[in-house]
Amino acid sequence: MTGKSTLAALCLLAGTTHAAAPAAMHARNLAANCTPCHSPDAPAPNAIPRIASLPADRILQRLQAFRSGNAPATVMHQIVRGYSDEQLALIATHLAASPDPAFDQR
């Protein structure tokens, strides 16, 4: 590989990395709204489940059930209405990948 083609390949790879970073940050920011109630530091940690590290499909199904009214809720049914399907999927994926119960918000 020539020097120019190596440089071009590195630039393409760097662009891919930077493109993924905003998506990950966006998912993290969306999931930050869950932290006040679902982290170990929440006011009622035993009454409100911790959701970090649960499987993404399980989190997403639950969020969709709240939004459709198929799951009983006090406020979750109202909260999830403000998110698109894509945003709920980003939240579920971020939380599932987060071993930190505080969702990496420290």
From TrEMBL:
The keyword Iron applies. SUPFAM superfamilies: Cytochrome c. Residues 1-19 form the signal peptide. Keywords: Heme, Iron, Metal-binding, Signal. Residues 1-99 form the Cytochrome c domain. GO terms for molecular function: electron transfer activity; heme binding; metal ion binding. The keyword Heme applies. InterPro entries: Cyt_c-like_dom, Cyt_c-like_dom_sf. It comes from the Bacteria. This is Cytochrome c553. It comes from Aromatoleum tolulyticum.
